[in-house]
Amino acid sequence: MRLTSYSNYTLRILMIAAVRSPDLTTVQDVADAFGISKAHLVKCVHRLGLWGYIETVRGNGGGFRLTRPSATISLGEVIRRTEDGFSLVECFDPASDACPLVRRCRLRPALLRSTEAFLDALDEMTLAEISDNGDELLDVLDLAAPDASACRAAAATA
């Protein structure tokens, strides 16, 4: 099983948004930090905004930030949105299934169970858990930490 680059980039965007919260992050910041094309990331940020995970602020000084606490965002929830099905083998998709063994196959149920186990494990993990080492992540990526005064102000209003 392999996740698409789209899922990978989407999770990276969410991680950076989580560790930089409540500050705004730009797509260019993420592109530079990971060496990824800005064009690829724009699509991810757009979708994350439509799905309600981030808010985007346009214009000079704009960017994006989380709209929900990172502890309320499960990885399984995100992956289910970003992946277009989990057809590990052709028989998972009735539209493309041409396998003559499908009615007698014992492999298919095992692969279906393992796919569900994979997603169940991701359902149990949150964005907060994979970004709780934020200072280390920001250091490795050479990104600025969130403004401490803005963090205190955000915490005071929460």
Tell me what the structure shows.
The protein has a domain of 102 residues: Arc Repressor Mutant, subunit A. The chain is built from eight helices and two strands; from the N terminus they run H-H-H-E-E-H-H-H-H-H. It has a two-stranded antiparallel sheet with strand order 1-2. By secondary structure, it is mainly alpha-helical.
Summarize the structure.
The chain is 53% helix and 5% strand. It contains 8 helices and 2 strands, in the order αααββααααα.
Any key phrases for this structure?
158 residues, mainly alpha, Arc Repressor Mutant, subunit A, two-stranded antiparallel sheet, 8 helices, 2 strands, elongated
Give the SSE layout.
Elements: H1 5-20, H2 27-34, H3 38-50, E1 54-57, E2 63-66, H4 75-82, H5 107-123, H6 127-130, H7 134-141, H8 148-157
